[in-house]
Amino acid sequence: MAEVSARFAETRAEILANIEAAAARAGRAASRVHVVAVSKTVEPERIAAAAAAGWDAFGENRVQERAAKADALASLTTGSGARPDWHLVGPLQSNKARRAVELFDVIETVDSLDLAQRLDRIAAEVRPGRPLPVLLQVNVDDDPAKAGFHQDELRRDLAAVLDLAHLRVDGLMTVGRLVERAEDARSTFIALRSLGEDLRAADGRLGRELSMGMSEDYDVAVEEGATIVRIGRAIFGERHLLG
Ligand SMILES: *Cc1c(COP(=O)(O)O)cnc(C)c1O
User: Phi/psi of residue 124, each to 5°?
Assistant: First the structure.
C-alpha cells in the first residue's frame, strides 16, 4: 500500500506541475483548477491509495458502480483528513436520480430541464436546506454521440433551471470530441468558456465553474479556463473492465 501511495504521489506532483505551467501560460492562478480523479473501473483499495496521496475529489460515471464501492469507501478520508467529494460524470437516467442524490456531492451531467426539475424535487427531500451542487452538461460540438444541452436549448431553459431552489448551479461541463491531438480540443474548450460568459452576462445566477479536459488534453483545457479537469488514466493507468 505504501508503495502504491508513493506512485500516486509522484503522478500527482507531475499533474499538478503540468496544471501550474498551463495556468501560468494563460496568466491564471492554478489554485482555481480542481482535479477530479475519475475512478471508474478502479477498485476501492486503489482509490484509497490515491486519496492518501492527496487527491480529494473522485468521479464515477455510473451510479451502480459508485453504489457498489460505497461501503468499502464509507470511511475514506483524504491526506488532510477530510471526506473526499464524489462527482457523477456520466449520464444520469431519471430512475437512478434518487440514488445519485444520495451518493454524489456534485452531479456534473445535468443535461435537460426535466432532469434538473427531478433532481430539485429529490434534493428537497433528501438534503433539505442544502442545495445540490450541479453542472449543466453542454454538447458544444453538437456531436450526435454526446449527451448534453444544445446551446439553443440551454439559452431557452437556463432561467427555469436557475429558478430551482434546491439546486446550486455551479457552472458548465462538456465532454469533448475524441481528437487525435490535444490541440484539436481547444476550439471545444473555447466554445464552452465563451458560452458560459454569454449566459452569465444574461443571468448572473449561473456559477463560474467550467468542467472540461481529461487525461490527454487537460493542459489545453486549463489554458482555456477550465476550473475542473476530470482525469482518469493519467492517475490510475489504463482501465480494465470490472468483472
Ligand atoms: C472516463 C471519463 C473521464 C476521464 O477520462 P481519462 O481519459 O481516463 O482521463 C473524464 N470525463 C468523463 C465524463 C469520463 O467518462
Answer: -60, -35
pLDDT digits (tens, 9 = 90+) for 56-66: 999 999 999 99
Q: Residue 243's pLDDT band (boundaries 50, 70, 90)?
A: very low
Q: Which of 214, 216, 236, 239 to mutate to test the pocket of ligand 1 (most atoms within 8 A of CB)?
A: 214
The DSSP symbol for 151 reads H
* Residue 148 in contact with ligand 1 by CB distance below 6 A: no
Helices 151-162 and 113-126 pack at an angle, to 10 degrees, of 30
86, β-bridge pairs: 58
Asked whether 202 and 165 are in contact (CB, 8 A), the reply is no
Asked if the model's pLDDT at residue 44 lies above 60, the reply is yes
Handedness of CA 25, 37, 32, 2 (dihedral sign): negative
Residue that is written with C-alpha cell 476550473 in the block? 227
Q: What single-letter DSSP state applies at residue 215?
A: T
C-beta separation of 137 from 174 below 8 A: yes
| Residue whose CA is at the smallest distance from ligand 1 atom 10 | 230
